[in-house]
């Protein structure tokens, strides 16, 4: 079904959006001017992410402002001011220095979402070492693999995680010199206690000269389509973090911002730590996991104004029913955004009706370091669309040939697709948070570029008004009887049926059609799986999508495989259906 545009009038808004008019903001934008809005290290010392995020604020009257409002699992809260965070992260930088860790060496964080995580992340950056966050849910093997790939010198974790996940592989990690444990407890042989190290360290630390091109972050991708890649980012990325927080997330002075992303995912760093702090807002730091009642309570009690979350989380709230939201005063909420997976239009509209503001989809990747395409506070929302490219970002859709390669013209330039035509979503290289390489995989990095563009590996189309629409990952797209089918279109349609909460759609080989569309659906609470329902869903999809695109068959699956960052792992559904090896499942949600 076609979803109506959600119009924004902007009139009478209590807080006028930062991006007032998309076209004029884009026309007047320059990265140089954006860079000029940051402070830079004193005495021309360069550009350091942590200095821009905390120290420059802490030095002025903002030192007293709450930077972090930390909620522990039991629900008690502790506030940390910008001044305190500056001192605590400086202490950690001093700890690294004391341990003989050199700039450029890698510090891994395998930590829950707590104030310590911020001190470790920012302190690492101040020391000009490289931060590499890991999902706390990883098992020992993926931890070993990433520490080996990244030559981890230090890992900071908790006693429990250490015992279960790091100790079993420590002998395989000769480069790993120091294990620091946060959270106190009995001394553990072979490790150091983070709390006492911080206490003994100096709260002042002078950040050394930092070249904007110095490596700052090593982020492993979500592993949705294969083996995770280690994307290298540099200090200059902070320019993108500042701009996207202001324009795409509409962060204002005085905002209370909540990013629910796992700290092991790139979103947990770019928008869980850096972007909000650079923009001087108060971050909600919730140690707990998803729980509908707790989340509504948090939004209300903390008077969250800007909320950044993921489609699966919104779908889970939707599944909990509008009753769960009733009785909660969400009137402080001004802007809701989501990332990581396609946001089906039904959720956008649900968000408007139940949360009071539509969810604003935006698109980016580990490789891009920051938001690239977004729906903005001031711009009409076309439910199901990812929005338009950020000011400063050149994005396009490129035509592909029958083998999936982008088409180049006689001069070697890539050919753009026409309005409405499907092709590969591509970005013009040169924005500050662009990855500078895949660690140890030069060839793979080079293969991401063609005809003057960075190729995202995602398929999309752009409508005549410049809105981008996600089709699917190039690896997931289904070719059936001459049609190119994006799984999202089919999944989104199935999710419009009241019995369905989530869907994963894949293509299975067929001698006649090439591939046939096959769907796995998760049913809403209380709905019974039955053959009648299956037929009803097939009919429902046929009516909306046509017989060529609708799934041939539907299977019920209450536990679709997800990555830790909340993405449906379609490649795993496919491997399981075909009885093939499952490949790299290190980021699978249920890995112990
Ligand atoms: P891997 O590269 O290891 O397969 P991954 O691509 O899932 O994993 P991430 O960098 O976390 O790793 O995810 C980026 C991808 O997530 C995008 O390329 C896109 O496929 C998907 N994605 C992100 N935002 C959106 C969105 N708003 N709509 C649709 N898909 C999105
Ligand atoms: Mg990817």
Main attributes of the structure:
Luciferase, domain 3; 5-stranded parallel β-sheet; binds adenosine-5'-triphosphate; 592 residues; Rossmann fold; alpha/beta; binds magnesium ion
Oligomer: single chain
Ligands bound to this protein structure = adenosine-5'-triphosphate, magnesium ion
Number of helices: 18
Question: Could you tell me the mean pLDDT?
Answer: 95
DSSP helix fraction = 25-40%
Taken from the alpha-carbon principal axes, the silhouette is: globular
Instruction: Quickly count the domains.
Output: 4
- Count of individual beta strands: 27
Which class do the helix and strand fractions yield? Answer: alpha/beta
**CATH class assignment of the largest domain:** Alpha Beta
What low-confidence regions span 5 or more consecutive residues with pLDDT below 50? none
CATH-defined topology of the largest domain: Rossmann fold
- Supply the CATH superfamily name of the largest domain: ANL, N-terminal domain
- Any idea what the radius of gyration is? 23 Å
How much of the sequence is in beta strands? 15-25%
Q: What's the architecture of the largest domain in CATH terms?
A: 3-Layer(aba) Sandwich
Q: How far is the N terminus from the C terminus?
A: 40 Å
Taking the sheet with the most strands, its summary is: 14 strands, mixed
